[in-house]
Amino acid sequence: MTGRETIFALSSGAGRAAIAVLRISGPAAQSIVAVLAGSCPPPRHFAARTLRSPDGGEAIDKAGVIWLPGPATATGEDMAEFHIHGSEAVASHLFRVLTGFDGVRLAEPGEFTRRGFINGKLDLVEAEGLSDLLAARTEAQRRQAMQQFLGGSSAIIETWRSRLIAALAAVDAVVEFSEEGDVAGVADQAWRNDAQALIDDMQRAVARAGRAESLRRGLRVVFAGAPNTGKSSLLNALAQRDVAIVSPLAGTTRDSIEVLLDLDGVPVVLTDTAGLRDGSADDIERQGMARTRRFAGEADLVVWLWSRDVAGSDVVAEGVRPDIVVETKSDLGLGPTDGGESNQISTLSGEGMAAFVERLSAFVKARVGLGEAAVIVRERQIQAVEESIRFLNDALSQPIGALELVSADLRGAATALARLTGRIDVEDWLDDIFSRFCIGK
Fold this sequence. Notes:
- By secondary structure, the protein is α/β, with parallel strands linked by helices.
- The chain contains 13 helices and 11 strands.
């Protein structure tokens, strides 16, 4: 399948740079190269050419030109690339020239990748992996995105689907020859064993998906505690800049403040919250404390901070379940509590900070589970797998020998997995998925 229009976009970053890459895809790609570069270079050969406007031959730029005939391209269509000097003036002039060609227009966000999907160059899970790869900020996010983009997840999903189709074929064959002996009973037990094994595999993938989603968006770590226990100071110290206002006045922080941090390759969203205390008459502060409790309940990990210069702050507030408890302000020189080892830190002197970061990192890595790669990572993918599991459970609940009903349920389970990779019936998802890409991808 080929798009009727030819599209173009800058695939490299906008702004001043040594080189900018402009991509073209569609039926007019070759003729555009021939007109602007004087002739079309051999396929897949990088050629230095002077680009000239079609009206009068004014020089646009000295550029590298690559001609890529389809279907062996990223979009499955004829493509070309102009490697121009990274000047905004050069790019803008070339844009104006290209829009002067009939049937040529600027690409929409994600349109190159969408055409690649439509033309069978990648499936929907691989496309979503590419989207995550483009947005990746940390090493762990990159690895997870590459698992999907390179087809690792799709291969597993296709194995599930192949097992379903094999079971469906066996059941349908028995339906056709159901009068021959006890063949129906034997086949019934065989598909049930296969279905249960497949349910177990998919349920493990769903269980792993929650951690994978946390890795995609960033693990949410909430700092909670009484007012003046050092939450804002700790946030500033970890962010290495003044993000939150620090004041000795109780109730200074009245709303949440978030900072994205790369913690040993894992994206972490640190959240400073309003201090929790009883008896506040300030309505805004009470609203802030209500948010603190909500954020703590939704967090992936909660750190409770307390200090001995704030009476009663060592008592965790009702309803808050901390994963880590830390005593702050060790620079006050009060020593360990009860004569034992204490998780003490000081953002002023730096004491205990390295140990705290190491402990926090260990908790984060354990929570996201960086061992086995996740098969599914997005809500859309989770829904499709859960739908397939529901169909399989429906099949297992059918009476012994009701193979016509079993066949319908197995077919529904296979269809749900086909939607997952985009084989069928995914039109409603396409605009949402590809609109998240940048222009040029």
